[in-house]
Design a protein that fits this description.
This protein has 184 residues and is of the alpha+beta class. The chain is 51% helix and 14% strand. It has two domains: 95 residues, Orthogonal Bundle (Tyrosyl-Transfer RNA Synthetase), CATH 1.10.240; 79 residues, RNA-binding S4 domain (Structural Genomics Hypothetical 15.5 Kd Protein In mrcA-pckA Intergenic Region, Chain A, Roll). The chain has ten helices and seven strands. Strand 3 and strand 4 form a beta hairpin. Helix 1 runs antiparallel to helix 4 and helix 1 packs across helix 5. Its EC number is 6.1.1.1.
Length: 184
């Protein structure tokens, strides 16, 4: 099986500066002038990773497709940029699984979701995402809990409208702590 467009894009995006300079010459059809311009722009602000982004874009579009590249960029922005609940819901199942590969996951019965699932139970006791109900309450007071990239309060009930691909709900505490609920 081919590497998914998202993982493929991420591989090139995460290459080192020196490697990227070699790779862009070997694996793309950019002219020498275009390559020099990209490298010069990259060297002015290395933290923006202009070289790696261009490399990842060129190769992903060539190997997968322009459409697959757009999906990979959108998927990357979900984890590393500003994205919305709508962006998340547009992901197909495989891309969702690729993006959140390695993120802790718990399974929840569909019956719990269809009746309105208590957020505190979803975050602590039933899933173990957070250690205790008091930790959940603290996090909610800090306004650091999101469901599918949307901030929520303690009264929030998880429901069928929260499902991504009719089976996933993304829980988040702060910017970098993710947890996936799979509804079975």
């Amino acid at each position: 099986a081919r590497t998914s467009p998202y993982k493929f894009y991420q591989y090139w995006l995460n290459s080192a500066d020196e490697d990227s300079e070699k790779f862009i010459r070997i694996f793309t059809f950019l002219t020498e002038d275009e390559i020099k311009a990209v490298i010069a722009e990259h060297n002015e602000a290395k933290h923006l990773r202009v070289l790696q982004k261009r490399l990842a874009e060129e190769i992903t579009a060539m190997v997968h497709s322009d459409e697959a590249l757009e999906k990979a960029i959108k998927a990357s922005s979900i984890l590393f940029g500003k994205s919305t609940s709508d962006d998340l819901k547009e992901l197909d199942e495989q891309t969702f699984l690729d993006v959140f590969d390695g993120v802790p996951l718990a399974e929840v019965e569909r019956a719990k979701i269809s009746g309105g699932y208590d957020l505190v139970a979803a975050l602590a006791g039933d899933t173990g995402f957070l250690k205790s109900n008091s930790e959940v309450m603290r996090a909610l007071k800090e306004n650091s809990i999101s469901v599918n990239k949307e901030k929520v309060t303690k009264d929030y009930q998880l429901g069928a409208g929260d499902l991504i691909n009719d089976q996933f709900i993304l829980l988040q505490r702060g910017k970098k702590n993710y947890f996936v609920l799979r509804v079975v």
